[in-house]
Amino acid sequence: MTAQTTAFSQRLTAETIEVLQDAVRAAATAEGLDAVLTDDPDDVAYLTGFFHHPTERPVAVWLPVDGPAVLLVPRLEAGYARAQGAVAQVVEYAEYPGVTNPFAPLAALAAGRRVGHPLTSSFLRLRMMREGMDVAPVPTDVVMACRYVKRPAEIALHREAARISDLMVEAGVAAVRDALRADDPLPTEAELAALVGRVGTGVMYEEHRDVVVVGFMAGGLVYGGANSSYPHGLPSGYRLQEGDTFMLSLGCAVGGRFVECERTFVIGQPTEEQARYHEAVRRAQEVGASAIAPGVPCRDANTACLAELMDAGLGEYVLHRQGHGIGLGMHEPPWLEDGDPTPLAEGMVVSNEPGIYVPGHAGYRISDSMLVTETGAEALTSYPRSLADCTITA
């Protein structure tokens, strides 16, 4: 583990956050809104730099098109918000459910304004907004749409998350190889998952300052043999063994910005069947990477990628799309799927993760987090993808 990033800060500057806010203001203005009120935790982090553990107590951002952002928090979060260097204006309410509606402190700001709320707001929160502020907020996706395209400071966070994700994969492979060489029992799925998670968070705390703690910081899914035929199967007590196909589906969040890196490995010399499946997915992933470029509709990239698996006669084993957007959420729009016509744009980060899942045998998936560039796409994660590189022997 090398200290390449000793002074690396996970926090965006106030100037960068202001740029993000201005983009949302412009989008809200274009939609005919006077302000946006969002209680989505990822939106809150995006617009203010305040990361928190969501509970029943509302935390929200008021962002007018013609004024400064205001962060609404319960009193118990106010000190934490200020300590994180969030927006200068922090407004408190006493407690939840409260004698007074928690959104009431924003009522004067909202009077007579057309206010947008995110599509993720619950019915209960919307009722509280209406009653506490005497407004009728309208649904909008302007914040989410602005989150699609990452600014340079955000891309730097994604790049660092990619570096750490690669280190996590390397650590998982080393653990299996070391056990083989020592003729020790191979790790269980759960043991390997715990190991790679410790590696990821360990790098952050050793090499970074201002570490941003989110619900999922580092780790992922580890599964072997027939267990890997479930695309999102959770790690179990199954102990890996020679001859297994197994998957490391890993990732981490730096500054709240996610990256994923997934590789499928074979323990011991691959069979003809394992080689066929692995190579088919590798080819599909390669085609998928070439299909990701600015201006290309998400659905077209998906079609090109998955066609490789269909043409190889493996369509019955395809259970999911090519990929999805990545940002403050590990899974977020846009979706690289037949139903999403969104054009890809420079600065987006998306996953490229075709896979096949053979019941009773194994799953095969290769995933990289891709940065859409001016002319195409760049894989932020870089662990080798070939079967030769993904074969683990003593």
Automatic annotation (TrEMBL):
It holds the Pfam family Creatinase_N. This is Aminopeptidase P family protein. PANTHER family: AMINOPEPTIDASE, XAA-PRO AMINOPEPTIDASE P-RELATED. Residues 23-147 form the Creatinase N-terminal domain. It comes from the Bacteria. Keywords: Aminopeptidase, Hydrolase, Protease. One of its GO terms (molecular function) is aminopeptidase activity. Residues 157-374 form the Peptidase M24 domain.
